[in-house]
Design a protein that fits this description.
By secondary structure, the chain is α/β, with parallel strands linked by helices. It folds into 4 domains: 162 residues, Rossmann fold (3-Layer(aba) Sandwich), CATH 3.40.50; 113 residues, Transcription Regulator spoIIAA, CATH 3.30.750; 115 residues, Transcription Regulator spoIIAA; 56 residues, OB fold (Dihydrolipoamide Acetyltransferase, E2P). It has 13 helices and 21 strands. The strands form 6 sheets. The protein has a 6-stranded parallel β-sheet with strand order 3-2-4-5-6-7, sandwiched between helices. Strands 17-18-19-21-20 form a 5-stranded mixed barrel. A 3-stranded parallel β-sheet has the order 9-12-13, sandwiched between helices. A hairpin with a 5-residue loop joins β18 and β19. α1 packs parallel to α5. It is globular.
Length: 471
Amino acid sequence: MERTTTVISPADVDKQLEYCRAVAGLMAWQPGERPLALVDTYGCQQNEADSERLRGYLEQMGFGFTSDEEQARIIVINTCAIREHAEQRVFGNVGALVHLKRRHPDTLICLCGCMAQQPHVVKKIRDSYRHVDLVFGPHVLWKFPEMVHSLLTRRSRMFLTPDEPGSIAEGIPVVRQDKIRAWVSVMYGCNNFCSYCVVPYVRGRERSRSPEDILAEVRQLAEEGYQDITLLGQNVNSYGKDLDEPMDFADLLEQVNAIPGDFLIRFMTSHPKDATQKLFETMARCEKVAPVLHLPFQAGNDRILKVMNRRHTRAEYLEKIRALRALIPDITLTSDIIVGFPGETTEEFEDTLRVLEEVRFDALFTFIFSPRPGTPAAEMDDPMPREEKLQNFNRLTALQDAISEEKHAAYIGKTVRCLLDGLSDDQRYDLTARTPGNRLVRVVGDPSALGQFRDVKITGANKWSLFGELV
């Protein structure tokens, strides 16, 4: 396969905006009314960022937005392929739409995202979900208006999932779901090929946006009043290696930090092999960079790490954590762990528990191994019974729950500057907030403070969140 990154020209993006206008003219609707679209997103923040661009295109086509399938003239399902459970949820929800399609045959049903780039999924949708009109992968998202125009004019199913390394398209309109937090993709794809992961196959190779385009986007967000900006990449701290004039992520972070405005900078996801001393020093020096790092280690045993193709050892990981904490003692640390990787023994799993005991993460994202078709791990012998994997998983979560509860209890009585970012769904509290380290706080206080940085006195805690009141 050709591995050269394609840069989509401004003229080609402008052509898509012309298709948007053509679609708006094709929509048969009552005068004064507006057709509605539903975008349903699964998976990671990168998928959320992609959905914001899909909404941007849809708005240019004349659509408003709804969460009611019955009202939607077009339904776009943006999918995740990281785990089997997420895949089955998507198939279940897509299958249920067959009844809606019978009631509203003119409704367009589209499936995109990482699942759509997998051949076995495309075949299953083609053969068994004939009510789905359009399937397209992440590489051609920038051509979404052209696809919709073809559906409306030709009325035949479409499958666009080219096997290519990926592209970069600037100038796609964006409709953000939030007025406080924003996602900014700084790069796409991954070159790591961890043996359990489908990302390089469905998202393509690493390709970095130009720093000028990234800084312009962040500057605009700061001017619009966004207060929590997350820089995204499948392997964000390998940013810049493919640029004509290479730069590293630490340099980009420092340039973003220099943009005027009162906002926090977060970033994810990082790979231990690219988490450098320079990055840690930059984080410590830059006042807008939140004191939080998500640094997946996946397993605590070196043999398993090697089979995973993680390219770091347990000792190297722990040394990076010590170096980071020497610079930022109050850093909030989170990580990913896979339990029951093929061939892992319970003795090897206990090395993972020992890492937890030493590092004492603030929170974890934990998963029982899920084989992904097309990855090397899916073909490996996996002798451990599911019941034993579940027992190990429960041991892991019990240990982390105890650590999280203890860490959260230490906040009680402290006053923390938090960003009030939402209305609480718990009737005992008015607002939700986030600490600089991204801990969830449920807050008693005036809802008019939403969107502000405010001091919050922490009055209680459990293993999931903190509780407090506005000072």
